[in-house]
Target: Bifunctional NAD(P)H-hydrate repair enzyme
Amino acid sequence: MKIFHSKQIPEIDAYTIKNEPVASIDLMERASLKLCEWLIERYHQEQSFKIFVGPGNNGGDGLALARLLSEANFQVEVYLVKITRHLSADCQMNLDRLKIQNSSSISEISSLVDLPIFSKGTIVIDALFGSGLSRPLDDLVKDIVKTINDADVEVISIDIPSGLFGEDNSSNDLNNCVHADYTLSFEFPKLSFLFPENAECVGIWETLPIGLHPAVIEEMESPYQLIDENYIRSLLKTRLRFSHKGTYGHGLLISGSYGKMGAAILASKACLRSGIGLLSTHIPRLGYDILQTAVPESMVSIDRSDIIFTEYPNLENFDAIGIGPGIDIKCNSIRALEELLEECDKPLVLDADALNIIGANQEMKKYLPKGTILTPHIKEFERLFGECKGPFDRNEKQRNFSKKQSVVMVLKGAFTAITDENGRCYFNPTGNPGMATAGSGDVLTGIILSLLAQGYSSLHAALVGVFIHGLAGDLAADEYGEDALIASDIISFLPQAWKRIKS
Ligand SMILES: NC(=O)C1=CN([C@@H]2O[C@H](COP(=O)(O)OP(=O)(O)OC[C@H]3O[C@@H](n4cnc5c(N)ncnc54)[C@H](OP(=O)(O)O)[C@@H]3O)[C@@H](O)[C@H]2O)[C@@H](O)CC1
Ligand SMILES: [K+]
Model:
């Protein structure tokens, strides 16, 4: 699903109105019907709603919804916030229709004393501002929003929490934006919903299809996309009947150090559970018995050092290389990584300490071979690129670096963002907070290495790897719950996850 900039929404709207064709007031009615259906499915008729309405079309949606909910016998109170005398045409039309219907109370709020008492159990519908927000909230609206946020009520925002911008919120104070429990967005999510920093405002979000014209959605360009299972299925390779282990590649995983052999075990197991033909795990000498016992399917390449990574085997024998989980940051490891980056002409995935080494030795960035996959979490990202002004700025830095260096970057977190050499950004929907646990990233590195060795392009290896990692984590969380989930559980559910997307 493409994710459009707020500035593109009016164009999509206008195209739909002209080419469907449909009158704009009828498009608003369609959107409001979807909202109404969503609410009717979830709430009993004793439920009362307080709808806060602004001057634009977001307010118009709120007014149309008030009429539809009243028609369905819900108790509705409307609060029209007086910011300007002028309402948008469709907002005014829906106000007139609501007045004619004459079954909901309509109050004007011109100061805080006009606000109602928010009794527990009330649902507030936030229809103050939508994608037409042009500046951060101030004065009266800001105070209204703070009062709503402080009240012990459930809040449902229409299209976007009022006060939040669809993209960049670096100049915004999130305390002054509505903190919604649910956000019901029309047709697409907004980019800002996918950034972890905005979760307190957005709550749980859903998209409601409102029949915007498919031709304009198809044609209009956007660098942002939310991927889904069907898209991932379209990228998968099938295993051939007459294949052998050589068909699925030989991977080299450089991982582990004294006290961190677990990382090498987790990454190796995940790699082997994701379809690779052969795996060699390069580890310091002390880890020999540990790895041979824990992962008998992997061959072992031994470092001359007992405790850290200081060298690597001849790369010629391998189809892809993964390096980083648990390697530690020592002088000799830095030198060995430098050499590897300069020599390596094989598909490569870098994680954890490999990224931290580059973060501490910035000149190494320019040696990254084209097509390399980097898989930082936010802290590692900031070690690589410095502090960011906010999530939008971070995303821009990520896209620009991918483009400049022709690398794939995987910024891990909820809605992991994957950027490619064209500056495109793909957000992943799978995964859950239970996966924020030690070793989860090592598992991802193993999966991606496996896919690279099997001949997936860097971008496809990253997309499929991130999706399947999240899916296995979701299946594990279904079984064990998020709190008890550990990285080994993600590996245990890889078979089910692969079966599901290969079926
Ligand atoms: N295609 C779709 O998806 C469909 C979209 N639909 C709906 O339309 C919504 C977008 O509507 P919209 O463009 O009228 O903008 P909206 O946010 O209601 O308000 C703009 C008004 O607010 C004002 N204003 C702005 N910032 C302000 C501030 N800080 N403080 C005070 N005032 C401020 C601004 O004034 P100005 O900036 O001109 O000074 C203007 O008067 C969208 O979110 C969705 O709900 C559906 O109806 C059907 C199909
Ligand atoms: K809103």
Observations:
- The chain has two domains: 2-222, 229-237+250-502.
- The chain has a mean pLDDT of 97.
- The chain has 18 helices and 18 strands.
